[in-house]
Amino acid sequence: MNAMNFQDIDFYGQANAETNTxxxxxxxxxxxxxxxxTQWTEAIGTALSAxxxxxxxxxxxxxxxxxxxxxxxxxIGSTAIQIDAETKVTFNSIGNIVQVIGNTxxxxxxxxxxxxxxxQNLFVTQGNAIQVAGVALSLIFFLNxxxxxxxxYNINANFLQLIGLGxxxxxxxxxxxxxxxxxxxxxxxxxxxxxxVLAAIAQSLD
Length: 206
Known about the structure:
Layout: H1 14-17, H2 32-52, H3 61-85, H4 91-112, H5 117-143, H6 149-170, H7 178-205
C-alpha cells in the first residue's frame, strides 16, 4: 500500500471525487474487498465492546470487561488498516487518526487501571471525547460528498456513532446514579454499533 502523503492535502476529497468510481474511499490505495472486510471487522469489534458494556446476568464482570477490551483492540486494528490505505490528507483520514488515538487511550485506561474504576473512568471518558472529535471530522467529510445513497449511509453512520460516543462520554457524569450511568453507557455503545454496521454496509455497496 502507498503511504499517506502528508503534503497532499485535500480535506474534502474533491480532487478524486469526480473521477473515482468509488464513493466511499476516494483516496484509498487498498483494494475494495480488503476495505470491506476491514469495515465489517471494525463493526464486529464495536459490537463486542457494546456487549461488554451491557450488564448480562450470565456473564461475569471480568468476562464483560474482557469483551470490551477485545472489541477496542479490534476497532483500533481495523481503523489503523484504513488509515494505512489513505493516500491523501482528508477530514476523513484525520478523523480516523483521531479516533485511533481516542480508542487507544480508552483501551489503555481499561488495561492499566483494570482494578481502579476511578482512573479507568477518567481515561475512558477522555478517550470517548477524543473519538467524538474524530467522528465529527469524518462526518464533515461525508457531508461534503456527492448526494448518493452510499453517502447517506455514511452520514447516518457517523451521526449515530457521534451520538453513541457522546452518550458514553456523558455516562461518567457524577450527577448520574450508578444504574443511570451503566444504562446510558450501554445504550450509547449499541447506538455506536448501529452506526458502525451502517458504515460497513456503505462500504459493501461501494
